[in-house]
């Protein structure tokens, strides 16, 4: 089918909403613009993304090959005569320069590739399955993961500290002491690794071939057409560097990107603990002693890239930095203080770390870290604090001088420091302070003190986004089922004038019922708020709502609370009053766990309870922004209804939340970005939109959405819910809501037998 001038290879007749979606993607690619596309879950946006982007790339391929040949010929003509003139003495030097120039040329004329990013590898696995159903299933694909996921070294893989694991892996790789790493060049051409495999398959196949899956995936991306990866790998500068990610001339697809603003902010933020500095000082001190012992006894010999003078210089810098952090004063009796962003450079300047010296400091810290980690055959856990400090300095000084002036103009940090992008926040961990016994020792060497944490927080997601887009990205396609309101997302990310699309749902209005319920069955107002956190009457009313709804809703039901504390409060109250037992008599109950290792078991139990024929079904109690609400499929009977029991506002007294609101209010006076109050409200409604998206997972699915809080009656809240949902929302009394639900499921019973899609 021809869409926007491109023959799109699609596996079936696309819906109209998919045609419009693919038209927008192709328009962005043709014009080298970015796109912000909202399409509800179940509208087939994944296939639309892949098929439109890959069809456009296929159309460009002949032209790209012609340009590449032309540039290769130019290089050959211009440089071959010079090779003849260069003597043997300079051949090596020239070849190095030539390959550098040729590498730049390859970057400029690199074939267009797709970096397809989502939040988790489980989401990417589903995308890869959909790609296999198309005619593009034979393209070159690779998936990038972390060492934590991919390492198969018998010792390193068992390390639980990720920083230690990364260091040990790098050292084994550098020393050629990892059997699996040494076989990467031999194995990466194996046909089984070039096939479309997810992260688990990659590990399995690499084990059979006895090669390292981490480095194989990293090398395979050079010639891949599509690279799948979690999107934090794109925005974390250290991850980009470690994985050799080159975004030049790439199409960057960010799927499930409703949290991308926060990802961009966090990628440009760091936290420095006074204990980090103390540990670094102690490690440098131990290394100085080790070098002294080496001079006394040759048996202690360790090859190093630095000397005693460099160690002394670094120790002096670290001691000054520790003193500077220790001298930071808290404001009032609150045990905290806030400064503008550029204040962070004042702290480091007092330790002689500045624009001229920071690279040298990072280099020496990294060298010492590598040497300490290399001891004991690469299994030592030392050097981690030095590496962390090097990474912190790297992030902070990634701001060029011009960046800092922009930051001072637009961002703020609480004491006159950064204004536009960053803020510095200092907090205490309340320990007793003891002065050092010797000025050459760390304060923490002798006793605990008022340990401090200096947070360097970025509050402008556009800063982190620009760092990535400035890498030469052809187009960025940002999409999710819950991006609303799009205007606020675009302004915050500062991505200019993108292609915009807000797609309707492909379902008909009779497939979904949306009720706002302001009062429970006994007439008590449903208002989740700080004042009601210990109100037994409120928790009883929420429980009675759930009890009545579970009686009339078949199969699986999801109920989301604003926070884990609210969820725990509800469960505690219901158990103490006997309501929990009454709920259990209706359906099996499962609670979202906070521990990662328990999650899969709880989900399996919930699905098993729903699947039981002639069973009662089950209810899963979860949390907005929790794992249940963020990307899992509750298809068909596994998600017949979702209850939202309150709006999940961020904690208002959290320093980061307060500073974000202040920053936005100050910026909004000149830039008209958004107010702090609007951002605060959007944080809640975006989380609600995401939780609502767990139901209605395909064109024939159906379900009920119950917004159980009086605040959902406010126009300002309703306007920020997903656009496709807004026309369907009705305000009902509790009794009228129960009656409408009964009628809804009676009318939709005939749909059940026609459903072909199962979980």
Task: Explain what the structure shows.
By secondary structure, this protein is α/β, with parallel strands linked by helices. The strands form 4 sheets. It has a 7-stranded parallel sheet with strand order 5-6-4-7-12-3-13, sandwiched between helices. Strand 1 (2-3) and strand 2 (6-7) form a beta hairpin. Helix 15 (274-296) runs antiparallel to helix 16 and helix 15 crosses helix 19 (384-396). It is globular, with a radius of gyration of 29 Å. InterPro entries: ATP-dep_Helicase_C, DinG/Rad3-like, DNA/RNA_helicase_DEAH_CS, Helic_SF1/SF2_ATP-bd_DinG/Rad3, Helicase-like_DEXD_c2, P-loop_NTPase, RAD3-like_helicase_DEAD, Rad3/Chl1-like.
Summarize this entry quickly.
49% of the residues lie in helices and 13% in strands. The chain has 759 residues and is an alpha/beta fold. It has three domains: 2-10 and 27-65 and 110-160 and 173-266 and 466-502, P-loop containing nucleotide triphosphate hydrolases (Rossmann fold, 3-Layer(aba) Sandwich); 270-293 and 307-421 and 448-456, Fumarase C, Chain B, domain 1, CATH 1.10.275; 512-757, Rossmann fold (3-Layer(aba) Sandwich), CATH 3.40.50.300.
């Amino acid at each position: 089918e021809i869409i926007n001038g491109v023959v799109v290879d699609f596996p079936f007749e696309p819906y109209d909403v998919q045609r419009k979606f693919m038209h927008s993607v192709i328009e962005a690619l043709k014009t080298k613009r970015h796109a912000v596309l909202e399409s509800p879950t179940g509208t087939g946006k994944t296939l639309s993304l892949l098929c439109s982007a890959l069809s456009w790339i296929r159309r460009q391929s002949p032209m790209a090959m012609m340009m590449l040949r032309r540039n290769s010929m130019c290089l050959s003509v211009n440089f071959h005569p010079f090779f003849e003139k260069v003597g043997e003495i300079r051949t090596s030097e020239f070849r190095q320069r030539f390959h550098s120039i040729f590498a730049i040329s390859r970057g400029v004329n690199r074939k267009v590739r797709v970096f397809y990013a989502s939040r988790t590898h489980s989401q990417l696995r589903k995308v890869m399955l959909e790609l296999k159903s198309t005619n593009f299933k034979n393209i070159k694909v690779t998936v990038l993961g972390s060492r934590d996921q991919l390492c198969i070294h018998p010792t390193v893989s068992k390390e639980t500290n990720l920083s230690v694991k990364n260091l040990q892996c790098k050292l084994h790789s550098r020393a050629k002491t990892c059997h699996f790493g040494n076989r990467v060049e031999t194995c990466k051409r194996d046909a089984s690794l070039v096939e479309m495999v997810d992260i688990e398959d990659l590990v399995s196949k690499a084990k059979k071939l006895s090669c390292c899956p981490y480095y194989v995936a990293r090398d395979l991306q050079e010639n891949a057409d599509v690279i799948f990866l979690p999107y934090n790998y794109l925005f974390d500068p250290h991850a980009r560097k470690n994985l050799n990610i080159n975004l030049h001339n790439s199409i960057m697809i960010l799927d499930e990107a409703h949290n991308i603003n926060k990802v961009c902010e966090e990628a440009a933020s760091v936290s420095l603990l006074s204990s980090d500095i103390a540990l670094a000082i102690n490690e440098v001190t131990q290394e100085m002693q080790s070098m002294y012992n080496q001079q006394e006894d040759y048996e202690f010999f360790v090859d190093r890239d630095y000397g005693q003078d460099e160690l002394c210089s670094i120790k002096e810098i670290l001691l000054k930095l520790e003193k500077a952090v220790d001298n930071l004063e808290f404001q009032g009796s609150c045990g905290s203080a806030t400064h503008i962003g550029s204040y962070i450079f004042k702290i480091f300047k007092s330790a002689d770390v500045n624009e001229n010296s920071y690279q040298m400091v990072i280099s020496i810290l990294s060298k010492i870290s590598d040497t300490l980690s290399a001891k004991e055959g690469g299994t030592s856990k030392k050097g981690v604090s030095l590496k962390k400090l090097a990474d912190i300095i790297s992030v902070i000084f990634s701001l060029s001088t011009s960046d800092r002036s922009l930051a001072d103009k637009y961002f703020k940090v609480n004491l006159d420091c950064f204004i536009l992008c960053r803020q510095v926040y200092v907090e205490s961990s309340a320990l007793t302070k003891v002065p050092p016994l010797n000025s050459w020792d760390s304060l923490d060497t002798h006793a605990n003190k008022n340990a401090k944490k200096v947070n360097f927080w970025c509050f402008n997601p556009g800063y982190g986004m620009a760092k990535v887009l400035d890498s030469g990205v052809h187009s960025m396609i940002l999409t999710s089922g819950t991006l609303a309101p799009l205007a606020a997302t675009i302004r915050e990310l500062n991505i200019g004038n993108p292609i915009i699309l807000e797609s309707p749902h492909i379902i008909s209005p009779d497939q979904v019922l949306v009720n706002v319920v302001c009062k429970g069955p006994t007439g008590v107002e449903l208002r989740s708020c700080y004042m009601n956190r210990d109100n037994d009457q409120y928790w009883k009313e929420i429980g009675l709502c759930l009890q009545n709804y579970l009686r009339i809703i078949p199969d699986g039901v999801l109920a989301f609370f604003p926070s884990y504390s609210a969820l725990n409060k509800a469960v505690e109250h219901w158990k103490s009053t006997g309501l929990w037992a009454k709920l259990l008599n209706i359906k099996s109950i499962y609670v979202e766990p906070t521990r990662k290792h328990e999650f899969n078991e709880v989900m399996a139990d919930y699905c098993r309870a729903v699947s039981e024929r002639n069973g009662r079904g089950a209810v899963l109690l979860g949390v907005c922004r929790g794992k249940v609400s963020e990307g899992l499929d509750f298809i068909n009977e596994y998600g017949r209804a979702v209850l939202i029991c309150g709006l999940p506002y961020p904690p208002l007294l959290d320093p980061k939340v307060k500073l974000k609101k202040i920053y936005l209010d100050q910026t909004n006076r000149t830039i008209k970005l958004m107010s702090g109050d609007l951002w605060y409200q959007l944080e809640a409604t975006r989380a609600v939109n995401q939780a609502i998206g767990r139901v209605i997972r395909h064109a024939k699915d159906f379900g009920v959405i119950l917004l159980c809080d009086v605040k959902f009656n406010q126009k300002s809240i309703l306007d920020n819910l997903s656009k496709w949902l807004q026309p369907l929302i009705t305000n009902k009394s509790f009794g009228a809501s129960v009656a409408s639900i009964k009628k809804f499921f009676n009318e939709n019973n005939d749909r059940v037998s026609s459903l072909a899609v199962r979980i």
